[in-house]
């Protein structure tokens, strides 16, 4: 349950770090049923900016044409959709943009660099969740003036917490604060935090701790106050007693593959000997995997973090939700089916 006050506080906080004026035009392509897409409307309207909506973020041709036609200055999107625009939009169509802000999933440096090379503007990323209206932290282009520079982002970070929003990093089990730079469970406190889940006091109690919303995400804050996300608490596999983060394995695989488009999705499946084992859904062909695994072996990862060849499952396109996020349920189903098939073959 989000109140008008929750939404208004969130929009005003974002406006303090990414101010809009009456000459700005925000292009909204995300579904209105999604909190990030819904934010586009209220953020633009409250700041007196114009807003242009298109109902299908996958329609890259129309997005490029609308951006150019209306001279949009702000684009809110997800990394999945930016990959489409990178392939199908012309550089000049995005010439009016001054901010490209992504959310809902991790923006890789490879994609951000490729986008900047083609369009001359580097996307920045933010972080949020529906329960927080949704923005928690936002990267910005930074501030420059004579004799002064304030960084708005650090590579790999999702920015600093918004004004009025407090982020605490705690031990997942004890909920005690951890030192700066140490990964832990991300808690959020602020006027943007929800009132609770409608008719589910039990779920509300489980999601809150000491007045903070328990995000379920693992992250760390550096000495400059920038927030870095490691993974979801639920996206870990316990293999032989050791916690293996799926996101970390995906990042290393992606780097070894050297492709801009997301090509890997990792999940855990039951294993009789070690409790769990990794399975990897991938869009790469069989002949491409040996080189990826050869490079991965040189990354210095623990042995449990390195999947074997038989743990890869080919799929033409990684399953995504309407918001552009990876469909983790579909990934799990496909990997489980492949694991069962391997067991039957044995």
Layout of helices and strands, plus pairs?
Layout: H1 4-17, E1 25-28, H2 35-46, E2 50-53, H3 60-70, E3 74-77, H4 79-88, E4 99-102, H5 109-119, E5 124-128, E6 135-138, E7 143-145, E8 148-150, E9 160-161, E10 166-170, E11 184-189, H6 201-207, E12 208-209, E13 212-221, E14 227-232, E15 236-239, E16 242-245, H7 246-257, E17 264-271, E18 275-282, H8 289-297, E19 312-314, H9 328-345
Parallel strand pairs: 1-2, 1-3, 3-4, 4-5, 18-19
Antiparallel strand pairs: 5-6, 6-9, 7-8, 10-11, 11-13, 12-13, 13-14, 15-16, 17-18
Helix pairs in contact: 1-2, 3-4, 4-5, 7-8
Structural class: alpha/beta
Number of strands: 19
Mean pLDDT: 91
H-E order:
HEHEHEHEHEEEEEEEHEEEEEHEEHEH
Largest sheet: 7 strands, mixed
Alpha carbon gap, first and last residue: 50 Å
What fraction of residues sit in β-strands?
Answer: 25-35%
Shape, per Cα inertia axes:
globular
Number of helices: 9
Low-pLDDT regions: none
Describe it for me?
The chain is an alpha/beta fold and 346 residues long. Helix content is 30%, strand content 26%. It has a 7-stranded mixed beta sheet, sandwiched between helices. Strands 10, 11, 12, 13 and 14 form a 5-stranded antiparallel beta sheet that branches. Strands 17-18-19 form a 3-stranded mixed beta sheet.
């Amino acid at each position: 349950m989000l109140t008008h006050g929750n939404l208004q506080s969130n929009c005003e906080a974002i406006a303090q770090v990414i101010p809009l004026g009456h000459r700005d035009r925000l292009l909204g392509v995300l579904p209105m049923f999604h909190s990030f897409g819904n934010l586009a409307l209220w953020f633009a309207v409250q700041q007196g900016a114009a807003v242009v909506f298109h109902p299908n973020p996958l329609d890259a041709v129309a997005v490029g044409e609308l951006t150019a036609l209306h001279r949009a200055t702000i684009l809110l999107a997800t990394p999945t959709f930016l990959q489409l625009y990178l392939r199908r939009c012309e550089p000049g169509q995005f010439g009016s943009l001054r901010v490209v802000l992504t959310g809902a999933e991790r923006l890789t440096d490879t994609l951000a660099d490729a986008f900047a090379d083609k369009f001359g503007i580097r996307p920045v990323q933010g972080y949020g969740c529906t329960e927080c209206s949704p923005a928690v932290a936002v990267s910005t282009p930074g501030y420059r003036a004579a004799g002064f520079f304030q960084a708005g982002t650090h590579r790999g970070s999702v920015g600093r917490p918004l004004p009025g929003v407090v982020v605490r990093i705690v031990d997942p089990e004890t909920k005690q604060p951890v030192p700066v730079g140490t990964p832990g469970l991300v808690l959020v406190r602020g006027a943007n935090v929800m009132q609770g889940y409608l008719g589910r006091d039990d779920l509300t109690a489980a999601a809150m701790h000491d007045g903070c919303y328990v995000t379920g995400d693992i992250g760390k804050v550096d000495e400059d106050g920038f927030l870095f996300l490691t993974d979801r608490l639920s996206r870990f596999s316990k293999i032989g007693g050791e916690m293996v983060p799926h996101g970390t394995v995906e990042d290393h695989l992606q780097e070894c593959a050297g492709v801009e488009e997301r090509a890997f999705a990792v999940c855990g499946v039951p294993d009789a000997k070690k409790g769990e084992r990794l399975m990897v859904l991938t869009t790469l062909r069989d002949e491409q995997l040996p080189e990826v695994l050869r490079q991965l072996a040189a990354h210095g990862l623990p042995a449990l973090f390195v999947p074997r060849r038989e743990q890869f499952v080919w799929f033409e396109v990684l399953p995504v939700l309407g918001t552009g996020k990876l469909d983790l349920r579909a990934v799990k189903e496909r990997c489980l089916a492949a694991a069962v098939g391997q067991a039957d073959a044995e």
